Amino acid sequence: MNLTEFFAMSGYGAYIWSCYGLTAAVLIFMAWRARSELRAEIVRAQRRVQVAEQRE
Amino acid sequence: MTSNTESEVTAAPRSGSRWLWFHKLSSPPYAFRTAGNLRPWFFWPSLILMAFALYGGLILAPPDYQQKDAFRIIYVHVPSAILSLQVYVVMAVAAAVGLIWRMKLAHALAAAVAPLGAWFTFLCLATGSIYGKPMWGTWWEWEPRLTSELIMLFLYLGFMALRNSFDDLQRADRAAAVLAIVGVVNVPIVKFSVQWWNSLHQGPTFSKLDAPSMTASMAWPWGLMMLAFVLYFAAVTCDRLRSEILRRERNASWLAESLRSR
């Protein structure tokens, strides 16, 4: 099997690769978004803790 | 709110050691730490399994005798579809636990998984639509399976919108929980729509263990991909739950403890 044949997927290439591409994009986005949100929340929480400690 | 969560922890030893793990897990700093420790154990195996599943599904598996290579779409379509339903069950159970036992962490879990469920539902609908074009000759048809899955997406979006429409977090949790619990009726409707009504959608491919509709070389990449998706969901849920815990924690000493144990 050569590479052109593999990407052509017996004529269904456009359908298959768009499905796999879309799925990969959404999975990467979800994981990245969750990580960056967590980082932002940690910074925010640290600030809140600092404010609370200063008040004491 | 603060005094409520503290009494939860001090009450833990009295209620018996059998439930100690439950009380421990429901303490925000402990859950924050546990989710952080578990996350890599879900994430990296998920990536490795996905790589093997892609190799098996795209290269090793032979083309289907009817659908040719187009059947390969099921390796991403079916795991998305199954997770779309499973995540909803997780969300509804967590919401019910939060509602009945007034457990903040359960509400946090429901809030954490809702967008993930919505994305899996979107993926299921989108890949299904792309799959439908060459197989059925149409992108969309108002038939039972597709329509009920679209309602699934609206339930997730409704849950998230309802939660955002309250300023008071406790009221938001409770209102959204009621919606999540009521909406759970749609899960069996989606699942059995193909059997109950005359549907354009094909029947289940993988659940017939006694008479499998696929050969082993087609089936194992799907099994791996399914496992990979579940692990991926667990890993991302760990991150999202940790964000949710920090966002909700008003107790400064617990917040400090969570951040220290990171």
Write the layout of secondary structure elements.
The complex is a heterodimer of chains A (56) and B (262).
Chain A: H1 3-8, H2 13-55
Chain B: H1 2-10, H2 20-25, H3 28-60, H4 74-101, H5 104-136, H6 144-164, H7 169-183, H8 186-196, H9 216-248, H10 252-260
Helix pairs in contact in B: 3-9, 3-10, 4-5, 4-7, 4-9, 5-6, 5-9, 6-7, 6-8
Shape of chain B: globular
Helical segment tally of chain B? Answer: 10
Number of spatially distinct domains of chain B: 1
Low-confidence stretches of chain B: 1-15
Highest-level CATH class of chain B:
Mainly Alpha
* β-sheet strand percentage of chain B: under 5%
Count up the helices of chain A: 2
Please give a quick description of this structure.
The complex is a heterodimer of chains A (56) and B (262). Chain A has 56 residues and is mostly helical.
Walk me through what this model shows.
The complex is a heterodimer of chains A (56) and B (262). Chain A has helices at residues 3-8, 13-55. Chain A has 56 residues and is mainly α. Chain A has one domain (3-55). In chain A, 20% of the residues are buried. The mean pLDDT of chain A is 89. Chain B is an all-alpha fold and 262 residues long. Chain B has ten helices and no strands. Chain B is globular, with a radius of gyration of 21 Å. Mean pLDDT of chain B is 86; it is low at 1-15.
Jot down its keywords.
heterodimer, A: 56 residues, mainly alpha, 2 helices, B: 262 residues, Four Helix Bundle (Hemerythrin (Met), subunit A)
